[in-house]
Structure formats: C-alpha cells, structure tokens
Design a protein that fits this description.
762 residues; mainly beta; Ferric Hydroxamate Uptake Protein, Chain A, domain 1; 22-stranded antiparallel barrel; globular
C-alpha cells in the first residue's frame, strides 16, 4: 500500500503545466443535449481527451496552434484548426449523420475506434438507446438490460429475466445507478422487464473490471444510466404502442437556451389483455421519469431528476359460505423511487470541473392478504440519503486527476408484520425496528501517459461503514495500464479491490416481493473481491471493426449462503441461517464489434468457470456456482436493406444453470413410530447442469414515408423464432419403472408488433 501511495504521489507531481487551456462542452446541434464521451483528438501531437458525463472537456495542448477533431457516435466529425493566445471557452455543436429520408445513421469514426486503443479502461462497454432500439427482445420492448446480457461476461439468471450475473458474481453485487441514485430493484413483472424506459435514457456505461476510483460499493459491476436532459431549442415527443406496454416521452425548453425539461411515462396493460380473453390477472406496472436542466451561467448548471415505478397486483373475490359471504383478497405493491439534485461548476482556470450531488432512493414492498376475517400485511423498505462531491482536474492532454468524497445513510426496516384475526395467534405483529448505518468513501486517482506507448491509471479508494455495533473500513486500490504498439493495437492489464457493505436476502433467483436488503453486522462481515484482468485490443479502421480479448481471475470473500433447510419466510433471525464462504471465477471473453455500414452488430463469446466453497455446505468441498454457465455466445446483427426497411436478429447460446439433483430416497420411521417418511438423498451441491439453450429473436423495422417533423416505424418480430424453450426448472416424474428428471421450458415462440413514433416542433 505504501508503494501504491508513493506511485500516486509521484504521478501527481511529475507533470509540467501547459500554457493555455481550451475548454467547453460538446452538444447536439439539433436540441442542445450534451454529449458525454465525445472525443476530441489532436492528430499533430497524437493526443486528446473525451467529454465527461456532462459533456464537459478541458484540454491544454503543448502548442499554441493545433488541429482538433471532435467526434461522437452517429454524428458528423468537426475538423478545425485553432490558435490559443489565452484560455478559451469553446462549445462544439455536432450535427447528426442523417440519411436520405431523415433517418439517423449510427456509425463510428476512426477517432472513436482509436480511443479504444488509447484508453486504459478495460471491461467497459458503452450503450446508447439509439444504437440498440432495433434489437429484438421479449414482447418487442426495447430493453437496455436485455441488451447488456448479450455482452461478454454478462449472463442472465433465468430465461427472459433482467438478472445480471457478471464475471462470476451474484445479482446483488451489481451497482445500478440512475443519475447517481442507486436503483435496488431493476425489474418489472417479476424481472421480465427492466425499470428503464429506453426513450428516457441518454446513455449507459457498464463497467465489469478496472473499476475507476470514484466507483465502489459492489463487487461485480457498475451500470451507470443517465437520463435525457431535454432539448433547449425545440419541443419533442416520442413513444410507442406495443402488445403489452405503451410509453410517451415529451421534452423541450422551459426558457429557450436556458432551461429544459423531460417527462416520460410508461404503463403495461397486461391486466386488460388477459381480461379481454377471460383470464383474470389484476397485475400491471408503471413508471415515470422526469428531469429539469437549468443553465445558471456558462460555468454553473443545475440538474434535478426523479424516477417513480411500481408493480401492482390486487386480487379481490367474494366467496359464499354457510355463514354468509367472505371477502378474499391478496395483493402486493413493489416500487422504486429516486431523486437527484446535481450542481456542476467549472472553475476559473477552466481545468477543474466539480459535481456535487444530493440523492435519495427508496425501495419497498407491501404484501397484503384478507381471508375469512383474517388479515396480514408484510412490509419491507430500504431508504438512502446521500451526498457526494467529485472533482476532475485536466492538467494536460496526457494527465488527468480525479478526487472526491461520498457518504450515504442507509435506513433499513425489514419484516414489518401486522395481523388481525385468528392468524394473530401464531403470527405475531412485528414493528420491524429501524436499522441505520452510514457508508462513505474518499478517493483519488490519476490517469497519465508516461510515454508515447505507455499509459497508467492509478487510484486509491478508502471506504468504511458504521453501524450500531460494527465498524468496518479498508483500502480499495485500483491500477490499470495500457501499452500501445501502434495506432492499431494495444495490450492492457488491471487490478481492482472492491468492498460491499450490504447484501440481499432472497429466497429465489427471480426478484420477488419477499427479497430484502440488509447491512453487514457484527456477525455478517463485508464482502470483498480481488480481480486481475488482462486484454488485447485491435481495430480495423477501414472496416470500422474493433476486436477485444480479455481474460480475468477473480476471487470473492465473505460471500453469504443459506444453511441446508434454512427457514426464511417471516424469519427475523435469518442471520442465524446464513453462512460465510468464498468464491473463485476465471474466464476469457471475446468481442468483435462493427458500428458502420449497412451491416452492423457484434459477436461475443465467454468461457468461464465459477466455484463456491463453504465449510458447512457440500461437506466443505468446492462446488459450482448456480449460474456457472461455462459457455455463453451471442450474435447481434442489423442489416439495412434500404432507408425504409431493415432487419435485426439475435442468436444466443448458453450452458445450463446448475442444480442439486436427488439421486434416491429411503424410508425412515417418524419420531412417534406411527408411520414412515420418505427421506430424499441428494448428490453434490449444484452437481448437475440443466441442458444448454439457444434461441433466435428477429425483428423487421418498416419505416413509412414521413415528414421532417414527424416520423414513425413498425416493429414486427418474434422472440424464440424456432420455438426452442430454454430449460427453466426440473420436475421428478415416474415413467412406470423409475423416477427421472424432466426439464420444463419457460418461453416458446412469442410474436410481437409495435409502433414507435417521434415528433419535433422544428
């Protein structure tokens, strides 16, 4: 650790000041939206930078006259020559690549491909809704989480769900943030749809390794989701009508060039569809997104954003009995709420950018039941209130610093139970005491080009958590390095240590209204992981193709698992049912991506092995993790026949999930010797895998002739086109002579049709 601190200090002081600074923002010319991740490249000095999450850049070139190229995926590149005689603030406005019929053409530029070679980042993939809106998913809905599952190193839990198991981790080891606020439950409809309305989303970044110093709190991945800010220049409306959901998003200026808004709403009508065919299913979900963007001055900006989403099930029925009518009812309400206030400030030196964020998030569920003069209410909730301050200092094109502090208060109220009637005799009322803890971190990092070929990114994060009877803290060093052979290919390596101070107590692999989040305690220690990764990047600019190969080795400590036969339902003392153990994961990932031309898409393949070891499980022997899927492959393609007709297809393959098989049973007298019971005999834990699965999803996109201000498109497709249902569970069946396992599938062929539209006032 002393050596790491010395290296960080050495890098911070070992740089020379550039003379003048060019800074500003990069915007979309048509609506004034900022463009995060836009690239500014200075070809004469073979150096550059990229805009941060708010579209801000700062660069201090070593020469007073220089050429700069500004580019962004799907936009025309600006290539200009500038001269600096003083610090200059200059905003760039990019025009979209537009085809003959006004459709946006998404294509990468050689500069963006070059950034993949130059960057020290590993295991990081950026997604844009515009890029993935054509990819077919379940029900014809555009779904960012489902698309993320098609990337190497990411696997789904069960078929069609939004679970993400990244590089051997579990679903609760992913940090998902929406405008800097944590989203604890990312699924609607028991996880079959994500909570993210793609029309309201601006961009998504998924980090699987080489974590930057400012990100922490989970072991496996960080998914950073940013909402649209709203146009400062024109009013826009977009939306869609599908078989299961409809959505509408509106944005525009409140004060032209000064303040903008964005509101989005989505609702499913599954309840109405089933009601129309005579099947009562009183379930629906809805969500809302809203954002306000206020430009106070050229150096200060305020963002206010919020999200609200709920899943609602309400079943009511009246049953006639000899004593009269009895009301029977059951339902639940499962919901997320987030709100964020952010203040961006650019300092006078034009090299320093700060972001101060106040955020709040809440996840809760209520389960209610009424039956024969009895009632029960089960409630659980977690609420966060946090504050963070982050700074970026752009010392020179080859030297960038980040530092800051973050703190969040967690308020847990698990297992609140209220009963009335005879049921109160055996299920007691419980107030569910409030559990509080404080989590925080300070961090610093430096990304620097040491030579023309070698760049490093070194950082240190010091994190802690304080609870009523426990305090934990520790360092989280981060180190990444890139060696560039030439402008076409480079090798990279990284190391990260991550700590996690909370976990999810779940009785199922699907997100159900019985899952609850719980902090570490005196007996449940924080989880932590070490990850080492190395990779190779090669680009082919003429073909607009990038190739990435990454290998990783990951160890996970203080993982939790349940005792054999653990009782979790209505259990306040579930800590006594938890065990601590370790895990190991090793894997190799391949990604080939093409972002330009009539044919675009990617191909990914992962081969990995993930194990768990618990002293009190499987006789202390190491066993495969439940979602140890050895082979996972995806092929994503989009082909444009012409400006009005295109076709997309996704083919996926993955090895089956693991389960513990029953190999036999024996008869044993009960304790009173009045009867006998069948006792099952099990094989090794997770010793058998379900069958491998593969499927093909297709989608035709038809674009009728539209006008400059109004456009629309029909999406006609199918999920699981050749009707090969993926194994979902196993049942024990008797075939006349012996018992055998039978695999049950979940989804077969599911057709879809949807109409998407957009409107602009200019």
């Amino acid at each position: 650790m002393k050596k790491l601190l010395f290296l960080l200090f050495f890098l911070m002081i070992g740089s020379a000041q550039a003379q003048y600074t060019l800074s500003g923002h990069v915007y979309d010319r048509s609506d004034g939206e900022s463009l995060p991740g836009a690239t500014l490249y200075l070809p004469e000095i073979q150096s550059g930078t990229a805009t941060n999450a708010y579209g801000f850049y700062s660069i201090s070139p070593s020469t007073s006259t220089f050429r700069v190229q500004v580019s962004y995926l799907g936009y025309q590149t600006i290539d200009t020559t500038l001269s600096l005689s003083e610090n200059l603030t200059l905003n760039f406005f990019l025009d979209e690549n537009v085809g003959q019929l006004g459709e946006i053409e998404v294509s990468a530029t050689p500069i963006e491909l070059q950034e993949q070679v130059n960057s020290t980042r590993m295991g990081t993939i950026k997604l844009q809704p515009r890029e993935i809106s054509s990819i077919p998913t379940l029900g014809g809905e555009s779904d960012l989480i489902k698309v993320a599952q098609l990337l190497p190193g990411v696997t789904s839990g069960n078929e069609g769900t939004t679970g993400m198991f990244v590089r051997g981790g579990t679903d609760d080891q992913n940090l998902v943030i929406l405008d800097d606020a944590v989203v604890y439950n990312i699924g609607h409809l028991f996880g079959f749809f994500s909570v993210f309305n793609s029309d309201a989303i601006k961009n998504v970044e998924l980090v699987k390794g080489a974590f930057p110093a400012n990100q922490g709190g989970r072991l496996s991945s960080v998914m950073d989701v940013r909402m649209n800010e709203g146009s400062l220049q024109r009013y826009n409306a977009r939306g869609g009508i599908g078989l299961l959901t409809s959505r509408l998003t509106i944005d525009g200026p409140v004060i032209p060039e000064k303040m903008s808004f964005m509101v989005a709403a989505r609702r499913t009508y599954i309840d109405k569809v089933f009601q129309a065919v005579g099947v009562p299913l009183p379930y629906y979900f809805y969500d809302y997104n809203a954002k306000l963007n206020y430009k106070i001055s050229e150096n200060d900006r305020i963002y206010v954003s919020t999200y609200l989403g709920d899943d609602v099930l309400a079943f009511d029925e009246t049953e006639q009995t000899n004593e009269g009518s009895e009301d029977l009812g059951f339902g639940f309400n499962l919901g997320n709420f987030t709100s964020t206030i952010r203040w961006n400030h650019i300092y006078k030196n034009k090299k320093t950018f700060s972001n101060v964020t106040l955020h709040q998030t809440r996840f809760k569920y209520d389960i209610e039941g009424d039956f024969i003069n009895n009632s029960i209410l089960i409630r659980s909730q977690i609420q966060d209130v946090g504050l963070s301050a982050d700074w970026e200092y752009f010392e020179s094109p080859n030297n960038k610093f980040v530092f800051g502090a973050q703190t969040v208060g967690h308020f847990f109220r698990p297992n609140v139970i209220s009963t009335s009637g005879e049921i109160s005799d055996f299920i007691e009322n419980r107030k569910g005491g409030l559990i509080q803890n404080l989590e925080g971190a300070i961090y610093a990092g430096n990304e620097r080009e040491l030579t023309e070929n070698l760049s490093v990114n070194v950082g240190l994060r010091l994190s802690f958590t304080a609870a009523e009877n426990a305090f934990y803290s520790g360092p989280e060093p981060r180190l990444a390095a890139r060696y560039k052979f030439n402008d076409r290919h480079s090798v990279k390596a990284s190391y990260s240590l991550m700590r996690q101070y909370m976990h999810r107590v779940s009785s199922s692999s699907i997100a159900l209204p019985t899952d609850l989040w719980y902090p570490v305690t005196a007996s449940i220690k924080p989880q932590y992981s070490h990850q080492i990764s190395t990779g190779y990047t090669r680009i082919f600019p003429a073909e607009q193709i990038s190739v990435t190969i990454e290998g990783y080795l990951k160890s996970l400590e203080n993982l939790i698992e349940y005792r054999e036969g653990a009782s979790l339902i209505l259990n306040d003392n579930f800590e006594n049912e938890l065990l601590a153990g370790s895990g190991r994961s090793i894997g190799l990932e391949f990604l080939i991506r093409k972002n330009s031309g009539k044919f675009t898409g990617w191909a990914s393949y992962s081969i990995s092995k993930t194990n768990r070891t618990f002293d009190e499980l499987n006789r202390g022997q190491t066993y495969p993790a439940k979602y140890d899927r050895r082979h996972v492959a995806s092929f994503v393609s989009l082909f444009e026949f012409n400006d009005r007709v295109s076709f997309s297809a996704v083919w996926t393959y993955q090895s089956g999930a693991r389960f513990t098989p029953q190999t036999g049973q024996f008869l044993m007298p009960n304790s009173s010797l009045t009867s006998v019971e069948l006792i099952p005999i099990y094989d090794d834990r997770n010793g058998t895998a379900l069958g491998s699965s593969h499927r093909l999803d297709i989608n035709f996109i038809l674009k009728p002739r539209g006008s400059r201000r109004f456009g629309g498109e029909w999406h006609i497709g199918a999920y699981n086109f050749y009707n090969r249902a993926a194994p979902f569970r196993v049942d024990v069946q008797y075939n006349g002579s012996a018992y055998e396992y039978a695999q049950q599938g979940l989804f077969g062929f599911i057709p879809s049709i949807a109409y998407n539209f957009n409107f602009s006032s200019k």
